[in-house]
Each structure stands twice: as C-alpha cells, then as structure tokens.
Write a structure and sequence with these properties.
It is a single chain. This protein is of the alpha/beta class and 234 residues long. The protein is built from nine helices and six strands; from the N terminus they run βαααααβαβαβαββα. The chain has helices spanning 20-31, 37-59, 68-83, 88-95, 107-115, 128-138, 158-168, 182-190, 219-228; strands at residues 8-11, 120-124, 144-147, 175-179, 194-198, 214-216. It has a six-stranded parallel sheet, with helices on both faces. Strand 4, helix 8 (182-190) and strand 5 form a beta-alpha-beta unit. Helix 1 crosses helix 2 and helix 5 packs parallel to helix 9. The chain is globular, with a radius of gyration of 18 Å.
Length: 234
C-alpha cells in the first residue's frame, strides 16, 4: 500500500495534545482552595483572555515580542490580584501551572503509534523552557520539539510554521499540521502545509468554509486514516 504523501507530522501542543484548561484550572484551585467552580472558571477565563489578547498585540506589532513565560507571569498576577492573593510564592507557582498540563487520554499512545511511521515535530507557542517542562510532565514523544520563541513571534505568524519546514528539510506540502484549532490550521495552510483537524473538548472548531485535508475525532482515528490513506487530497 503506498505511503501517504507526507514526510513528517507537525503537532500543535497546547489544547491539541494536552488539556491546557485543566492544568491552569488546577493551578487556580491551588492558589485559592476556597473558590467555587464558578469562581474558578471566571479566573480561568481571565487568564485565557489575557494570553490571547497579549499574543494578538505582539502579532499586531503593538507590543514587543515576549516569550510565553512572561505572559504567564502577567496572567498569574492578574488572577491573583482578582482573587485577593498576595503571596509571591503562590503567584509564582500559579505562573508555572502552564508547564503541568495533563495529556488527553489518547495522546501518549497516539504519538507512539504515529512515531512508528513518521517523524514527529511539536510546534508550540510555549517558550523553549515551558515546552521542555510540559513535554516531560505529559510524557510527549517527539523527534523534534520547536518553540515559537525561535521565531520571536506566535502562531499563526507564518514564521512559526516555517520553523518546522526548515527543520524537516522538506517542502511545506510534504508536512501535515495537526491541531484542534482551526485558526492554527489556517495559518499552516497559508504557508502550504497539509492540515488535519483533531476534535477536542476545547479548541476552535472548523467553520463551514474551512477545507482541511483530514478530520479526526482523536489520535487513534488520525493514525488509522494515515495508515490507510493512499495520499492526501490536493
């Protein structure tokens, strides 16, 4: 059976392979155990909105590039201020919660299965240091893990996807970008990568106008599709 017409698989990490919300939520609960579920979710939303807003400001040129560690510390301080927690050690611990993210149930086995057939490249907006820690914590298997910090910007800037193209030494259309975020896949498409959407409980589902090469309900499904594909659609 012919191999699929790709030479390497590139994975988004946050949200696609690890449950980012669960990790941050656990950090918020440790910061203030008295919080009820609604209060915890409000602070989680505050964290997420800060990260999204500041990454967008950097992408728009309204703020100089800063690695994810700095944005996480800002988000942690913001959450702590709203929660009324002033202990610097507790705030510092919360800032590191983005490095202690649980993998989705199918992640570790799915990566191992795919790694038998393809080189696997992680491509994350997390800083180099954060990526190392979260890879180790979640038990993620890579042949190469790349941080957007190396491009001094954030996805969906084309420069981040270009990191994977450069490392692979292959043409963009020989790489398959896998993500649970349609915006991430659109960014990869812009540079010519093939795309695979993997559904997760969190993420950014495809719009009706999106046309990705593969759609999967998990990594086992994705591995199965890649194992039986004769080639991806153009």
């Amino acid at each position: 059976m012919p191999e699929p017409e790709i030479d390497a698989v590139v994975f988004d990490v946050l949200g696609t392979l690890v449950d980012e919300s669960a990790g941050i939520r656990a950090g918020i609960r440790a910061l203030d155990p008295s919080l009820d579920d609604a209060g915890t979710e409000r602070l989680l939303s505050l964290w997420q909105q800060h990260i999204e807003r500041e990454q967008r400001r950097i992408l728009d040129g309204d703020r100089p590039y800063l690695p994810s560690d700095v944005l996480d510390r800002e988000a942690a301080q913001l959450v702590a201020d709203v929660a009324g927690v002033g202990d610097p050690a507790a705030v510092a611990a919360l800032a590191l919660s983005g490095r202690r993210l649980p993998p989705w149930p199918d992640t570790v086995a799915g990566l191992a299965r795919l790694a038998e057939r393809f080189p696997l490249i992680g491509l994350s907006n997390a800083s180099r240091t954060a990526l190392l820690a979260l890879n180790a914590h979640a038990g993620l298997r890579w042949h190469q893990a790349l941080s957007a910090e190396d491009a001094r910007t954030y996805k969906p800037d084309p420069a981040v996807y270009r990191l994977a193209v450069t490392v692979s030494g292959r043409a963009p259309e020989r790489l398959l970008m896998v993500a649970a975020h349609a915006w991430d896949l659109r960014g990869a498409q812009g540079l010519g990568l093939r795309t695979a959407y993997v559904a997760r409980p969190v993420g950014d589902p495809p719009a009706s106008s999106d046309r990705f090469d593969l759609y999967a309900d998990g990594l086992a499904d994705l591995a199965g599709q890649l194992g039986t594909a004769h080639g991806l659609s153009g």
